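User: Predict the full complex structure for these chains.
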Amino acid sequence: MGEEPLIRWEWIGNNGPLIRELVADNIIMALVPVLVGLLVALPLGLAAVRWRWLYQPTAGVVNVVYSLPSLAVFIVLLPITGLATRTTVMVPLAFYALAVLLPAVVDGLDSVPEHVRQSAVAMGFTPARRLLAVELPIAVPVVLAGLRVATVSSVSLVSVGALVGRGGLGHLFTDGWQRQFPTPIVVGIVLIVLLAVIADLLLVLIQRWLTPWSVARTATRRVTQGAARATARPAAQSAGQLAGQSVAGPGRGDAA
Amino acid sequence: MNFLIDFFGDPANWSGPDGIPLRFAEHLQYTGLSLLIAALIAVPLGLWIGHTGRGALAVVLSANAARALPTLGLLVLIVLLMGVGSDAPVLIPLVALAVPPILVNTYEGIRGVDPDLRDAAYGMGLRGGQVLGRVLVPVALPLILLGLRTAAIQVVATATVAAYVGLGGLGRYIIDGLATQKYPLTVGGAVLVALLALAVQGLFTLIQRVCVSPGVSGRQKTR
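Assistant: Here is the predicted structure of the two-chain assembly.
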């Protein structure tokens, strides 16, 4: 490397428009697949909870797709979707998002306690209203935990697309490599991590907003923790389950 | 399909420094080594945090941010700074990729163990380390293994980018094929990586069958 500094600040100043364009590209290519994944995962997850036998085969297929390397999928898609198009990058990312979100939706709906479901039935809720007003809200924390993992990975995975000509901020990596110039690479890494952290924080805020009761509950838990383990147990258990299952990502299907 | 026949049928692809066996071995070496290092870092750390509860928030938050580290960017930067003299340039980004899922799952697995079980273990006179080793780890094992499997599959798939900076592994076929517009080479490489990933998936299912206590996995009915 010699005397080349890790970062040349003037490069950033000179390339403002390019960086802004790549950031926007990265955001679109990361978020659209996650949204599509969510839109597919919700009905699929609902169906899998309603008809149990569906879950194993669907989870199996999704797992197999998840294990395909993104670079390989990009390349197989090239003749269909074209070199350096957004679609080439977004199609596999949507499948990865689905692989993370499907188990999250299923686990989320499974986390609805039976007595709550029965109370809703007893109160005369129709199945549709029960789903919208009771089951989905309770599933929100688990689904959102999955959504956080999917979003963060998606933001970072977009960069691999640079190898097929369209990688958002990943362009800075191939560019820096070809010119043996570290500044764009450092800028790219920092911006991708920054984007992911911002997206993650936004999702945490959305979760707070959608489930105000969970904030109250964790506060109570903190107070009761240690003093009375036994009474805090249900909350602790469910919290463990929430986080544990959703961070695990795909692969819940064959765990047993 | 014709691409695959072209690729796998060509004897030149089966021997020499560019042969499938050697590339496969390189790929396994990158994957295995980086998983091993990641597990050596993440499993003890996750056990410790899960058991003591110390520093949990900070570690989980930073693990989540670490998921965002782009492997390609790290790889390119490290090679630019260090050169390709050793395997280190490819190992560092892959370890960074593998640590978060292993760490978070180990921690959550230990923390999610029923507190009654933990109390019962202490009540039976086990000490801290014994509780961890004999009760918490066996009960948390499915989640820990799931973390290792997720990490392994991601590493197998991502190790392909090593070829971009001139290193070996199965990614060579993909990158070289792309650069020289030899589509069969690319597809063949992609298929090999996918097969390896599926094999890893199968291996972990097997490990899970063998290692997880029947009482935990629920395969044995409890009365």
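Chain B has one domain: 2-217.
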